[in-house]
Amino acid sequence: MLGKQVLHILVVENDPVTASSITRVMTGLGWQVDFAASGRAAQKLHLEKEYDVVLLDVALPDVEGTQLCAQIKQQQPSPPVLFISATEKGVATLPHHPGDDIAPDVSDIKDIIARCQALATSASFPVSA
C-alpha cells in the first residue's frame, strides 16, 4: 500500500466530462493534476513541468495519442504513460503502443488510480541493468 503518496499527473483527454471525473477523483486524493485537451497543450505542459504519470487519451483532436506518447518518451525526464480510451475500438488500436500501460475502461476510476500508483512506483525504482 502506498499510503498518502502525492502524485503529479498530466491528464490529456479531449472529453470534458471524462477529464473532469478523473481530475476530481485524483485531486480528492491530494494529487496534483494538470489537464490538457489537446496534444499541443500537453506537449507545452510536459516541457514546463515534471510528471509522475501521463494519462493519455488514444484519440485527440490534433494528434494521435500514440504519436504524442512517442514524442513524450523522447524527452527527458520521460514519465510513464497510461493510455485511456472511451471506446473499445480505441483500445483495440493499441496492440503495439509506446506507452507503459492501458486502462481498458475509462469509467473505472479505481482501476485508473491503481494503475497510476503502480506506474509511479515502478518509475521510482528503476531496474538496474
From TrEMBL:
Pfam families found in the cross-reference section: Response_reg (PF00072)
Record InterPro entries: Bact_response_regulator, CheY-like_superfamily, Sig_transdc_resp-reg_receiver
Keyword presence, Ion transport: no
Superkingdom per UniProt: Bacteria
Molecular function GO labels: DNA binding
Keywords: DNA-binding, Phosphoprotein
PROSITE patterns, alphabetized: RESPONSE_REGULATORY
GO biological process: phosphorelay signal transduction system
Modified residues (4-aspartylphosphate): D57
Response regulatory domain boundaries: 8-120
Phosphoprotein recorded as keyword: yes
SMART domains: REC
PANTHER family: RESPONSE REGULATORY DOMAIN-CONTAINING PROTEIN, STRESS RESPONSE REGULATOR PROTEIN 1
Record's protein name: DNA-binding response regulator
